[in-house]
Structures
1.
Amino acid sequence: MPYPPENHPHVFSVLAGREVSTWSDEWKHECEVRMLANMTLAQRNEVLDEPLKGMKAKRGEPAVARMRAEIDRYASLMRPKS
């Protein structure tokens, strides 16, 4: 099988609302958001805010703010509709 495969697998993205390639930046972003959304709040805050090692130290405050907004959006999309 060639690397990368010619026909990348596609999966449904909750955040994009459509199928995306599993090799795309959209899917990479969704996986990161999903991982963080499944952590406890304390764990998530540590990953995002830890001095010198956290996302804030690596990507900056605006990136962390966008990530928190995406986590909230993902959680709202995953809530059962009533």
2.
Amino acid sequence: MSRSRFLILLLGVPLLLLTGPAPASAATGSSMDIVDSVTLVAKGAGVQVEVTGTCDAGESGVFGVTVTQAVGSRIAQGSDYVVVTCTGEQQQAAVLVVADVDGTSFHVGDALVSASLIWACCSNSSTQEVVRIRR
């Protein structure tokens, strides 16, 4: 998908958070987790992040991931997302996050990963974790 649509998605997430939770009848229960496996790809040009989440069956869901890592005095950062059709059960997705060209490449070491799952217009689940990037 184009960067402009991704930017709209990223700008829309804070609005979703400000609107508050969806009514209890609208969700069957949600969860969001970052699997401990974050893998360095293409010599640091990106990382692959495994996430799991649950959203209402039949809805379109978006797993969004941002990875931020301090590398010396520079910052490696990137964001991306994948679209899934929600099953109502826990689902796993691999999100390939490419390092921004204005920063530096990712390296083996600790990084902050922020992940969210958004579905049905205004329902969401999110988490942030410090993870280890591995080869």
3.
Amino acid sequence: MHGAGRTAGNVRSDVAAEDIAASHTGIFTVPLPEERLLNLLMESLRLTARLT
């Protein structure tokens, strides 16, 4: 998925798959709402963040 997103120009090119895996691990080890952290991670991977 990461490679396809990069190829399509939807995902930042400076983020490696290993960065995403490490971030997922971190998200599910902290006592905060996982959905909020996951949304923050996904937005940070976009080439251009959506402002909502």
